[in-house]
Recover the amino acids of this structure.
């Protein structure tokens, strides 16, 4: 390159340098500052967004935890016996976050079936045996969709009549009250009278009002279906002749009902000593949907069953409905299958009893004294409140022990 060309190049470079503003490097520093500011702002915005997200996540976890082991139990009307049983169940099986039972007030036995079949949040329900009858035309497979957990108490039929009524046939064409809609009497009462072939003029008003109308002669009878004794009938003052009519248990009632009786112990002012009144009873049972074994609902109900069965002795103690003392965990409900988890609990208990019996036998064979009272106590724990089953288990063990010896 010639000297002249070099000088020209240097001149151009110098000129370009002179034309560059003095603060030309400032934009670079300003850009860096702006980037840092933007970064800080973005960080704050991200933190602001992440805080609600974290809070929402915690809330979702708490929601899932609360719902995971909560069981909805449909009971019935506030004034009915089933809702009292549901409340006592909830009280006994409560286990904090591990299990929580919500008793649900409903319109009665028919709605309980509907709730178990269709209502979200209902895992179990207390049903009357004959409440399934109404659904058979529309749900023909209902006996496969509903299973039972436990056979509860029985609700006795009371047909309370005026002095001039001497038989059920005398009620034909007369006013008979079946309590308010939704009660067991309002549902089962007409079904029973239909099976009896007696056509009456049905009324559905509160029994407290109907009892007063009975005294006035406006109503011939009131029909009650609930656990005896019924307080208004025990405490009420009745003229001579007011009484309960007998209802014979026969083949017309074998599908859903059981034989029962009312005695002077139940109603000392209405039933003479030694003259019990035969009647029928509607079984009440704890039911659940036939959930698939792989489902969360199945696991939830299975835990509920374990807690309930394990704590049955508490319910059968003082401070709870006396009906709990009559319950046999192994009792069946005609026409329905037992929920598998309930059957598994019974099988485990029976297996434990067998192992204990074998252990006792081994001790006996080794020369250790075995107290027969201990064996009977074990049989009693295996089949509570079922003397026949207890005696059978005890005899089987004694026979097996004799064979081993």
């Amino acid at each position: 390159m010639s000297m002249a060309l070099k000088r020209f190049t240097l001149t151009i470079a110098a000129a370009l340098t002179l034309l560059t503003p003095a603060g030309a490097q400032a934009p670079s520093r300003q850009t860096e500052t702006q980037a840092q500011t933007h970064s800080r702002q973005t960080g704050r915005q991200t933190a602001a967004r992440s805080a609600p997200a974290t809070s929402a996540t915690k809330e979702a976890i708490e929601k899932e935890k609360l719902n995971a082991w909560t069981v909805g139990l449909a009971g019935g009307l506030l004034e009915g016996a089933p809702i009292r049983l549901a409340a006592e169940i909830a009280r006994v099986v409560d286990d904090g976050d591990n299990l929580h039972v919500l008793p649900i007030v409903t319109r009665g036995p028919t709605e309980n079936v509907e709730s178990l079949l269709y209502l979200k949040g209902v895992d179990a329900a207390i049903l009357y045996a004959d409440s399934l009858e109404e659904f058979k035309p529309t749900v023909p497979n209902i006996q496969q969709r509903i299973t039972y957990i436990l056979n509860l108490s029985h609700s006795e039929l009371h047909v309370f009549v005026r002095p001039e009524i001497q038989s059920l046939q005398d009620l034909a064409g007369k006013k008979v009250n079946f309590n308010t809609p939704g009660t067991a009497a309002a549902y089962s009462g007409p079904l029973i009278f239909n099976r009896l072939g007696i056509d009456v003029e049905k009324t559905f008003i509160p029994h407290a009002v109907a009892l007063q109308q009975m005294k006035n002669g406006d109503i011939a009878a009131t029909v009650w279906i609930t656990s005896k004794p019924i307080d208004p009938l025990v405490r009420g003052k009745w003229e001579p002749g007011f009484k309960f009519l007998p209802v014979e248990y026969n083949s017309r009632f074998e599908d859903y009902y059981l034989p029962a009786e009312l005695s002077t112990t139940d109603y000392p002012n209405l039933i003479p000593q030694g003259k019990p009144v035969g009647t029928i009873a509607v079984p009440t049972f704890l039911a659940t949907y036939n959930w698939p074994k792989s489902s969360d609902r199945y696991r939830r109900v299975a835990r509920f069953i374990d807690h309930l069965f394990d704590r049955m002795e508490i319910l059968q103690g003082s401070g709870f409905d006396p009906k709990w003392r009559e319950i046999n965990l192994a009792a069946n409900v005609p026409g329905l299958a037992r929920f598998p988890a309930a059957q598994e609990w019974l099988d485990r208990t029976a297996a434990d009893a067998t192992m204990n019996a074998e252990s006792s036998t081994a001790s006996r064979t080794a020369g250790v004294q075995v107290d027969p009272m201990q064996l009977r106590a074990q049989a009693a724990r295996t089949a509570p409140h079922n003397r026949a089953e207890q005696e059978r288990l005890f005899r089987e063990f004694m026979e097996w022990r004799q064979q081993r010896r």
Observations:
- The chain has 13 helices and ten strands.
- Residues 4-28 have pLDDT under 50 and may be disordered.
